[in-house]
Amino acid sequence: MKNFSILLLIFLLSFNYSFKPKNGLDIGDTATDFSLKNVDGKRVSLADYKNVKGFIVVFTSNSCPYTIAYEDRMIDLSKKYKNDYPIIAINPNNTKLKPSESFEKMKDKAKSKNFDFAYLIDEEQTVFNAFGASRTPQVYLLDKNKEVKYIGAIDDNVEDATAVKNTYVENAIDDLEAGKDVKMAVTKAVGCGINSNKKV
């Protein structure tokens, strides 16, 4: 029984740990603004977005199967919320270690998928480290003051968009729009590990 209790404790600690970043931002923290290069060659920062209610910051990639599965859902989110909660997609991967994540490949991806949102490259890998992101895709929903309100997955079913039961990001925005705290503020981001020389 004692051994079982110890194993249960380890499991619960591991479970909780998997939901929280090792460092970086947590719920209630304020994100520091950044300036990163967009696929159109221009630099983009949060301050560029005027009169918005918040931001959907998504750490994503070109080639991760999980992010590919979510691309159309990201496009749908952008269409629905672009005026109030614009998507800012950021590729944090080390392009030297993974050429499929290069800036040229990012431009090809944005063009082929007709992205109507910014797709930025985190060349120095400083932004994902500051946020504490560990997976792609991983969402940080910020309010207009850049305060973190939600961290985690886009929804609860990466494999089948038609079988989604919990639209985490949309639910979080609904809570904010209703003037409430986000009910489910942290979920587990399921995806590819970020390709980096740095520890997250």
Q: If you had to describe this structure to a student in words, what would you say it looks like?
A:
- There is one protein chain.
- The protein is an alpha+beta fold.
- The protein has a single domain, classed as 3-Layer(aba) Sandwich (Glutaredoxin), CATH 3.40.30.
- The protein has helices at about 1-20, 65-80, 105-110, 125-130, 170-175, and strands at about 35-40, 45, 55-60, 85-90, 120, 135, 140-145, 150, 190-195.
- The termini are far apart.
In short:
The protein has 200 residues and is an alpha+beta fold. The protein has five helices and nine strands.
Keyword list:
7-stranded mixed beta sheet, two-stranded antiparallel ribbon, 30% helix, alpha+beta, 200 residues, Glutaredoxin, 9 strands
Helix/strand order, N-terminal first? HEEEHEHEHEEEHE
Low-confidence sequence ranges: 1-21
Strand order of the largest sheet: 2-1-5-4-3-7-8
Beta-strand proportion: 15-25%
**CATH hierarchy, class:** Alpha Beta
Helical percentage? 25-40%
**Net shape:** globular
* Average predicted confidence as pLDDT: 89
Radius of gyration: 17 Å
CATH topology: Glutaredoxin
Ends distance = 36 Å
Helix segment tally = 5
Task: Give me the secondary-structure topology.
Layout: H1 2-19, E1 36-38, E2 43-44, E3 54-59, H2 65-81, E4 87-91, H3 103-112, E5 118-121, H4 127-131, E6 135-136, E7 138-143, E8 148-152, H5 168-177, E9 192-193
Parallel strand pairs: 3-4, 4-5
Antiparallel strand pairs: 1-2, 1-5, 3-7, 6-9, 7-8
